[in-house]
Amino acid sequence: MAYVLKVKARYRNDKTGREVRLPALVTESGLLISHLRYLATKLHKGQSWRDKVTQTIKLLIEYINANEGRFEQNIELFRAFDESLRMGTINPTDLSDPSGLYWDPRKDEDADYLSTCLTGYTDWLTKASDHETKRANPFRLATSAEQRLNWAAYYHKQSRVFLNHLDRGEEAKEKNRYVREIVRRQKRFYEEEFKRFPADKILPLLDFGFIRADRRHETNPDRAADFKSRAITLLLHYGGIRKSEALQLYLTDISINKKRSEAVVRVYHPSEGASPDKEYSNRREFLAKKYLLVPRTDYLKSERLHLGWKSPALTRGRFFEVKFYPPHKATEFLLTYKKYLEYQRVEPQGQDHPYAFTNSKGEPETIKNFQRLHKAAVNRIGLNCEKYLGTTEHGHRHAYGYRLAENGFTQVEIQKSMHQRSPDSCLVYIQMTNDELRTKMENTVEDYGH
């Protein structure tokens, strides 16, 4: 019986001790080796990309298995697969699906991204040294998953019509002379109102929201307060960084500017950043040799210690420095962080590590746990924690960007403050809400007097 399952794998491509944790696919014929090799050639990509590639290949194999014997030509198969991603596989009149897939329709943007992931894999597959010898000939749906994918890649290479590249313009078409048969949909632009954390609710959140559930009856407020979550939120709201960046911080990444009595916070690249111990060349070596750990970006997304990394603009030292706004919030963060270290931080109990923020067991704090603590604090001050309200953790970054724009910072200055590579990346953070735009229009009419 044909099947495909997603599993976790430890991949080694030589006899050294180096190994990589990767998502893998197992079929009735065994492990899909080409998929693992492809992921191993793209280790600079993040875990989200690896999961998307894995998901795409898994979907294609499931589709082929569900439609065995249905298609005479590859292009028919690929067209039908592409349409099934976009339109779903369920009959809307009676909600039936003889294929057993029961796929819901996907947004064009999502389907385009999956198609791009599949194109990258098949492009790579055609360049593999043993591709020609492993290709199924002729193409038959009854062959193994590995052979099906090899043939798909061969067909793609020969007729150049499998899936569309990113370019859609006439210039790109003329340059390439060939246009892929299955093309990406025309990119759509949507007007979306991005919400930021309410400016009038940040102080209540910091002062009254973050209370330790196990210490809520403490008479000493310093022992009842959740200084850890308060410190992280100060970094998000007044430093504009992402929660994954805050949780990457080592104890040594937070220092004191004694002249100004404020914190200096540096966020280093999780693997390439400078080691706090000069004996090691970078953080990957530091973690491995001193703690037997890997950078948190190396963990699979399903693992609790996984953290993402958005590739912010970095200095030559492979770090960026948090820019607090207003600047005096650097002092407030320092005071909060000191209280966290004094009253709350739990030292590692078993596996030692360098991370600044820990949970109740002394382990590195996780995204999921911080999200839970933040949501509880938001609820505690009478708000719902929802993206469309701006009350999730990412709403603080939007509030930071908008605050800069509201106070006259230029686009380039906002880009630099938010550590983004492109000046246009900050535009999403500085948009007015529809209500604010309406108010400004009304005020403008009053100023003109008509």
Summed up:
With 450 residues, this protein is mainly alpha-helical. The protein contains 17 helices and 6 strands. The radius of gyration is 26 Å and the shape is globular.
Task: Describe the protein in words.
The chain is mainly α. It folds into 2 domains: 4-176, no CATH class; 199-437, Orthogonal Bundle (hpI Integrase, Chain A). It is built from 17 helices and 6 strands. It has helices spanning 33-40, 47-66, 74-87, 108-127, 131-134, 145-159, 170-176, 202-209, 221-224, 227-239, 243-247, 283-291, 329-344, 367-380, 395-406, 411-418, 434-448; strands at 4-11, 20-27, 30-31, 254-257, 262-268, 319-321. The protein has a 3-stranded antiparallel beta sheet. A 3-stranded antiparallel beta sheet has the order 4-5-6, with helices on one face. α2 (47-66) packs across α4, α4 (108-127) crosses α6 (145-159) and α10 packs antiparallel against α13. The longest helix has 20 residues, at 47-66. It is globular and about 75 Å long.
